[in-house]
Amino acid sequence: MGMSEIRWYGCGVLRTAMRAAAVLLVGLLALAAPFSCAQSGDKQAVDHYYDPLPQETGTAGLKLMLRRLQTTRRLMQVTAHPDDEDGGMLTLEARGKGVSTLLMTLTRGEGGQNKLGSNLFDVLGVLRTLELLASDRYYGVEQRFSRVADFGYSKTPEETFQKWQGHDVALGDLVRAIRTFRPDVLVARFSGTDRDGHGHHQASAILTQEAFRAAGDPKRFPEQIAEGLHPWQAKKLYSGNVCGFFASTCESANYTVRLNTGVNDAVLGTSYIQFAMKGLRHQLSQGSGSWTVEPGDRFTHYKLLDSVVNSPKDKDGHEQTFFDGIDTTLPGLAARLGDEEKRAPWLRKGLADIKAKIDEASAASEKDPAAAESSLAGASGMVGKLFKQIIGSQLSTQTKNDFRVRLLEHLQADIEKARSLSAGERFSAVVEAPVGSNPDDAFMAVSGRTFQATARFSTAKASRGNVDVTLELPPGWKWEVVKKEDSGIGQVVHFRVSVPVTAKATRPYWHRNDPERDAINIVDDPKLLEQPLPRPPVQAMARYADGHFITSVCMVRYKDASGNESQRPLAVAPAFSIEVQPSSAVIPSNLRGSTGVKTGARDQGSASQVQVSLKIPTGWRSDPQQQQVEIAKDQAKEASFEVFPSESKEGRTEIRAELKGGDRKYDEAYSVVTREDLGTFYYYQPAMQRVSIVDVKVPKSLKLGYIMGAGDEIPTVLKQIGMEVTLIPADKLGTEQLNQYKTIVLGIRAYDTQKEVIANNKRLLEFVEAGGRLVVLYNASTSEFNSGNFAPYPLTLSRARVSVEEAPVKILDPANRIFHSPNEITQRDFEGWVQERGLYFASQWDPKFTPLLETHDPSEGEQKGGLVIAPFGKGTYVYTGLAFFRQLPAGVPGAVRLFVNLVSGE
Question: CA-to-CA distance for 732 and 735, rounded, in angstroms?
Fold first, then answer.
């Protein structure tokens, strides 16, 4: 599947065109679910990729795990957005050197552009979370996020910190991650200078430098200490981007560590950078799908900024690794204690004995992977006994906590994974239900209902003893064993699972009340703070009497678009989901009459009767006020409302919908966020439509054709305000009768994404020459646009942008009819814009073009290339980089009026 799938659940009718004031869609859905389950070797895993990569299975997987067991190294990298990370370095450290590695990404990239479709803001943040987790799977790292949001492009760290309410929100989250993960080495991806470009990049490096010392200071963020966290001082701090992005060479004085990520790894079967690139290609919404790396050396450089240890350096001041000067052997954990080691004189020997067992397992695995299991079992037992001694010792609470993290949460967990690989263990579970005929009907458990699952465990060794297979469920859930079968080398257990009425839906634990303006996420469940996503609700566990265990996360089975069987983690949905679609609407202030509101419902479990009602603005009227809707089993049902707005002034309001089913009320809708190469998650939003009432005049007889590029919601808004808009499929551009339209709009990135637009550019220019009007929205592939000579006269696009949405705007040609018909445009029309003024402005143009506006960010020079216009033949050609794709869906009145004028040409 080339594009991300984001499906809204509510009614069966989605995105119906609005006529006079936009037909509001309200949907509700009653759900039941078929299910299935899949394997994960880590009880603590929180990502959503449970099928291991081929390199993580069998002998290769065991070798990778044994690398991790040979060292106590811990590294944490900090970036600003998904795709900022140094994937080659992370893969080299985590996969190649066995380093326990954490990637801390401050934002989820929710303010960026979507190169696959029209979904923006928080739903894009969920998609990019899934994409980054898919990349992490290759890097071999853990993932964390902070509460700050990507609010769009920023040119300075000052603006970034202003939007993020200062340093402390992001800094506190970063300190929390350091105190929890306890890295030896902290690595900033960026330098904190202008060289980083994006203000978020600079801010992430500035925060990393502050966090290095702050995390070790108990006076900083003392509320975390009160919660039970302990201060942690990382040993070394490094800065990235010291020589510029993708620099193959670097001045000797600019770096301390140079790492070659182009080295081949026999276990991975390729170089570290090439393996990382396989992961990065999953970040398709950022345009990474076609990126490649040629074989050969590939160097990445970092500079040591701060350190609490002395590390050996050569004559040029260079180190060999990030960990030079740090004893990262198991016995070295005791050496780090200094005088405190005297309180536990047995500690160093205990750690050395564990290391000897691991070395023994590693040597045995070279001859026979299965032969390593007994030594690994011995090592695991020794870890448990040693930790009990540590807990009962006179060591400090902080030291005990450090050993808890290093010995129990990581070393022992890794030993258990290695044991499973050595023993050839397999564990999965399947719920006894038909395979879903498509992705949408197979993966939701519903509160108040039951399902049956079957867990299957097997091992290559028959003499391991009895295994106990159980389920781990959220509070209030219940399970019982229906049947158990034992084969000697495995076990099959059938369960019945009861889902309580109060079961929590599978959803993000964070939200923003106003995604277009808020730059800090609200955390709904503090226990999940910094996690990528909540854990799936159901896991199966197989445990031996000696404590060895393996877990399996419940999945659901379905058939994908190609008819192949696939699976996803089991999720929980509410019994009913109700939505208002689209989630925003623009209504002309001069609307007379009513607006149609449609509702639809479906119940996949049993017949239901529900009550649906609308909450409308004061003075508005709904007919009827509420409706009883009878929903037959497995059927959809629609109902309609007529909403009569009162005389309205320009402003913002909202319409909400509510469903009453039984003794519960429902007022949310969810969308499924997925793609064939990704995991799956869900985005919830209130059953609400944000309504913008706009004083706008529209031409009465203009027929407009719109050709989508990457995807945007501009045509929806134009229809809502009463314009006649026809979507022209790009593949029909060669045969479409273009002369039936007065104006044609090329949506955002049309030349970047639609080869048919390029192929038929001559037809588009002939349309203009014959008297038509062509409005071209921004394109990001500026070099391709410039070399393609797509405009009627020379026009050079650049990467120039205006990121401050409040930046002053000057009208350069006040007499131009674009500013007068059919709407009078004044300075007030540039108030209230969201996120940015525009991007990919023209930098040079033929004298036949006239620039109409000037706007620029603070402390920067004039930019007049955001809106340029030129006559061509009998028609008009317009290029604009103004961010109409953000402003119109947000209902910004002035942007709506200006865009109507642009396409009207009156």
Answer: 6
Q: Residue 605: its pLDDT value, please?
A: 52
Tell me whether strands 664-666 and 651-661 are parallel, antiparallel or unpaired. Answer: antiparallel
Q: Which of 533, 819, 849 is nearest to 678 (CA)?
A: 533
Peptide bond preceding 822 in cis form (omega within 30 of 0): yes
| Burial of 327: CB neighbours in 10 Å, binned 0-12, 13-18, 19+ | middle
**CATH class for the domain made up of 696-904:** alpha beta
Q: Is 265 exposed, middle or buried (0-12, 13-18, 19+ CB in 10 A)?
A: middle
Give the predicted TM-score (pTM) of the model.
0.86
pLDDT for the residue 44:
40
Angle of CA points 479, 485, 487, to nearest 5°: 140
Return the structure tokens found at 322.
């990030």
CA trace torsion 584, 587, 589, 595 (10° rounding): -120
Superfamily of 73-325 according to CATH: LmbE-like (3.40.50.10320)
Residues of the chain with pLDDT under 70: 1-50, 439, 442, 462-464, 592-607, 633-637, 639, 906
For 126-186, the DSSP string reads HHHHHHHHHHHHHHT-EEEE-SB---S--S-HHHHHHHTTSSHHHHHHHHHHHHHH--SEE
Q: Which two tokens stand for residue 438?
A: 């498509």
Ranges assigned E (strand) in 416-514:
426-431, 444-446, 450-458, 467-472, 478-486, 490-498, 510-511
Given this model, what pLDDT does residue 597 score? 56
Contact 571, 507 (CB under 8 A): no
Phi, psi of 523 (to 5 degrees): -95, 120
Quick one: which of 570, 662, 564, 653 has its CA closest to 608?
662
**Structure tokens given for 272:** 């570290």
| Structural tokens at position 479 | 């399970």
Amino acid at 796: T
Residues present in the chain in total? 906
pLDDT of residue 637: 67
